[in-house]
Amino acid sequence: LRLQAHLADAVDLAIDVVVAIDQADVAHLGAHLDDAATGTLAPAAREATVHDLLRHTAGLGYAWDTGPIADQYRNARVGSRRHSNQQLAAALAPLPLLHPPGTCWEYSRATDVLGAIIEVIEGAPLGQVLQRRVFEPLGMQDTGFSVPASSRHRLAEPFARDPLTGAGVTLIDVAEPPVFESAGGGLVSTA
Fold first, then answer.
1. Short-list 57, 172, 50, CA closest to 107
2. How many CA atoms lie within 13 A of 187 on its CB side?
3. Is residue 35 classed as helix, strand or coil in its secondary structure?
4. Is 40 exposed, middle or buried (0-12, 13-18, 19+ CB in 10 A)?
5. Cα–Cα distance between 137 and 117 in angstroms, integer?
6. Non-local CB neighbours of 73 within 8 Å, separated by 6+ positions
7. What burial class does residue 93 get, using C-beta atoms within 10 Å of its C-beta: 0-12 exposed, 13-18 middle, 19+ buried?
8. Any residues with CB less than 8 A from the CB of 162 and at least 6 apart, and which?
9. Which of 152, 164, 182, 191 has a 20 to 30 A CA-CA distance from 146?
10. How many whole angstroms separate alpha carbon 183 and alpha carbon 72?
């Protein structure tokens, strides 16, 4: 019953996010889309919605591939752990979309934009919101975006090199709280 009550609170928060954003003046999340057939930009038929963000159909992407839009993501330093969630959303806003909103599923920075939206609605950093609304109610005492000095001896470290490829392995530094508390990744936890 306790878990059900906390999940109900999480659902209420999600509904609050959707209602607040529908009523707010939100950044356009890219005014144009990349027309793959011609390589040019064209006006989007509509803006991305919170529903699009929730289902990864907002037209956003990651800079994992190559091409002009991925280059623009990298040049804008989208995803830098030195930027706040609000700065990430602001950096994405003027960039072209990969697809017209609502037309194509693409795993993307949409969850990070949702994190920025939650921060605005809650008036607190995402890590604090998650701590108060999710981790504390569920008894997740060792979950967050960083590991306190007193617990770092418990942190599992990767191999220096991938045993299959020999490539160096680098993980995010969780010794200090990051400025960018990604809603799409970066939490550390113990069982």
1. 57
2. 17
3. strand
4. exposed
5. 22
6. 61, 62, 63, 79, 95
7. middle
8. 168, 169
9. 164
10. 21
State the maximum Cα–Cα separation within the chain, in Å, rounded to a whole number: 56
Cα of 51 vs its chain's centroid, Å: 15
| pTM given for the model | 0.77
As given in the structure block, the two tokens for residue 54 are 């929730």
* Among 52, 71, 54, residue whose Cα is nearest residue 62: 71
